[in-house]
Design goal:
alpha/beta, TIM Barrel, 5 helices, 7-stranded mixed beta barrel
Length: 222
């Protein structure tokens, strides 16, 4: 993609829709919806019981090394009427809809993660543009990799860079937006997300709605 992501329009709303979690639920129930089967009549969102969900995350827009979003099939679905219909269905049941931004790099030295975080400002600008363009309720961050120095003198550079990225993303998001960060069972919340979601559960077939269990809650919220 170009420097601005495909879904961003020349004129966008200045605020996002404010949606409270489904009132009947006593806790956060967070579902990940894959773009590959989003509108499938057998397993896609038309078959889901949204009253059992508090938040649905569209999975997702993948981050390139230069911080822009990949122009792949998931981006096409994000920019399609299927996403609009999903949001309408979820909002009509009081469930939030958020965008998952994805960067996964477990290769030696994690060069893609290093590059993506070095261009974090671009990702943040494009993410905020997408929230506004689609009038969704926030962002879910799925950055998975290994801590490392990225060639610096700081052995935990990636950890510190990601913390800074999360803080900057939170500050840039529209008022009332919901930010969640996917984490591992042994990780602690960083203080910039409203909730963190344990990623130990896998997507599954045929119904590719995967539910994550929030393990940490943070008091800070935009």
């Amino acid at each position: 993609m170009a420097s601005a992501s495909a879904g961003a329009q020349a004129s966008v709303p200045t605020t996002v829709a404010t949606v409270s979690a489904t009132p009947a639920l006593n806790r956060e129930v967070f579902g990940f919806a894959l773009g590959s089967s989003l509108s499938d009549p057998t397993v896609g969102y038309p078959t889901w019981n949204f009253s059992l969900l508090s938040t649905v995350a569209y999975f997702g827009l993948h981050v390139n090394d230069d911080g822009t979003f990949a122009a792949d099939s998931d981006a096409s679905t994000w920019n399609s009427s299927a996403l609009t219909a999903l949001a309408s269905a979820a909002h009509s049941h009081g469930a939030r809809v958020v965008l998952t931004i994805v960067e996964q790099d477990f290769s030696a030295g994690t060069p893609h993660m290093c590059a993506a975080l070095a261009h974090g400002a671009t990702t943040i600008a494009n993410t905020v543009a997408e929230i506004k363009a689609k009038a969704v309720d926030g962002v879910n961050v799925d950055y998975e990799g290994l801590n490392g120095s990225c060639g610096s003198a700081d052995a935990s550079y990636l950890r510190h860079a990601f913390t800074s990225f999360a803080a900057s993303l939170r500050a840039a998001m529209p008022s009332g937006s919901y930010l969640s960060i996917d984490t591992y069972a042994g990780s602690a919340a960083d203080g910039y997300a409203r909730s963190s979601t344990y990623t130990g559960l896998s997507f599954h077939t045929p119904n590719e709605l995967s539910v994550g269990v929030p393990r940490y809650r943070c008091s800070t919220a935009r």
